[in-house]
Every structure is written in C-alpha cells, then in structure tokens.
Amino acid sequence: MFATEDNELSVLFLSGSEWMGSVVSVPARGEVRTFTVRIEQMRDTDTGQAFDEGPYIVELLGDEDGVGGSEAIPVRVRQGGQLKRAVEVAQGTTVTFTRRVRPGSYYYLHVTEGRDRDGGGNVADAWTAPIFFARQP
Predict the structure, then answer these.
(1) What's this model's pTM, rounded to 2 decimal places?
(2) Which one, of 86, 94, 80, 78, lies nearest residue 12 by Cα?
(3) Is the dihedral of CA 87, 131, 127, 64 positive or negative?
(4) 68-96 confidence digits (pLDDT tens)
(5) 3 state DSSP class of 5
(6) Could you give all domains of the chain from N- to C-terminal order, each with its CATH number?
C-alpha cells in the first residue's frame, strides 16, 4: 500500500522479500537490512500516454524508537559504499540500499519527482506504508 498525489505513479518497497506493511523479525542487537525500491509511471488516465516524470528522489524515513516515540525523520542509507540522505531512482529501475535496523523501529519511503512537478505541472509526492521491525522470538 502507498499513497500518492500522482494517479499514475506506482511504488514498490521491500526489505529483503518482505513487502511494505509487513512486520519483519530481527535479532535483539539489530542487523543490516537491504531495502528495495522500484517506481513505475503508468499511463495517464486522461491522455493514455505514459510520461517519465523522474528521476525520482527517494528518502527513507525512520522512527527508530518505535510507535508512540519520536516522529519518523529522514535517515541516511548506504548505497554503493556511500552514506546518502536520499537515493535517485529512474523510472522502471530497481534500486537497493541498506540500513542497520533495530527491533521496535519502522521505516517508510517518501518519493518526490526529481523535477518537483509531474507531467501536468503539479507537485506529486508519494509515501509508502512502513515496514515494521520486531524482535525475533
């Protein structure tokens, strides 16, 4: 599940093989997890044309003290050996990055169109459902 202001934008978000909205078990000490994102621009519902409105800027937001604690904020991720505040994703391209996670934390994506506007000239962000990390039993 994801929410978007762009009716043609589709976002895929996983940690390992677990989809957004999932609860994933991690050891008490935490672990480094791989996150995957893919963004597709579907055909416009009015014109029937598919527009490439990217590149897309993807931020990982995390609440590292869990539900009821601090608000989720943008967190850094590791991609290609570099620490980054955000990653760039071209339409139709699958991108991975990593982050160390702890039990009780959750993470979700905020996606913006790189040009800050969609094909119709509108600002159109997207937000995914979170992935929750729980302590392994």
Answers:
(1) 0.88
(2) 94
(3) negative
(4) 888 999 999 999 999 999 999 999 999 99
(5) coil
(6) 2-135 (2.60.40.3880)
